[in-house]
# Entry
Amino acid sequence: MATNIWKNVTINDQEYVIRKFDAMTGLKLARLVIAKAAPIIPLLDIGDDQEGGQKRSAKEIANDERIYTVIGEVLGTMSDADIDDLVKKCLSVCYVDFPAGKQPIIDETGHYGVDDVEYDMTLTIRLCFEAIKWGAADFFSEKSSPLRQLMK
# Structure
């Protein structure tokens, strides 16, 4: 049973809060990621120690030129509906952490609840990455994860 379903992240000096996906949404997202974005997973090194026992940081991953080639190839295989579904699922668990409380990035109807996010592609990609990394990490990263069991 998940006891900690929230994670705080800072992007461009703004605090965000990300909630883990519920099991059904996480499984649907995992299906989409496996079907369409599987080539990206080894480049992310989510949860895997590099040589020397250290994990790669998000900055190190972003500086790896291979990731952009693979992302371009993956996006070429995704339909507009796939991308819409992925972004909506990811942003639905992301909130801006304001002093007065958490404000959802996107609501259940798909409307943006925070100004300017819908026009910031870089922020959207970062939030989606963080949402997948946090929300579905146990599926993709743990040594005994379902994904690793399938890949054996």
User: Anything to note?
Assistant: The chain has one domain: 15-151. The longest strand covers residues 6-11. Helices lie at 23-37, 41-44, 58-62, 65-77, 80-91, 121-135, 137-140, 146-151.
